[in-house]
Amino acid sequence: MDAAVQPAKETPQTEPEKIHRDPVASYGWLPCRLSLEIAVTRFTVADLLRLTKGSIVETAHHNASDIPLRVNGVLLGWTEFEVIGNRLAVRITELAG
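Request: output the structure for the sequence above.
Response:
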């Protein structure tokens, strides 16, 4: 065989190092919209126009039923309401699969 042409040596193929980045550090600044979907039955435009401070709106959800939580329109999971001090909060009970 000519000295200028030599068979290629096989070198073991190694996977490139995977770079692990913290998604919170990389994307934590992006704004998003959280929304809870609560079904209200028999609610009309007239009912909407009559809403005032202190109005109570009856929902179709039972006290024990979970409420869907969406982030930018995509289902994230289900929540339940909880009162913490004088604030209304939601506790995530299950993440969407």
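The CA atoms of residues 28 and 37 lie 24 Å apart.
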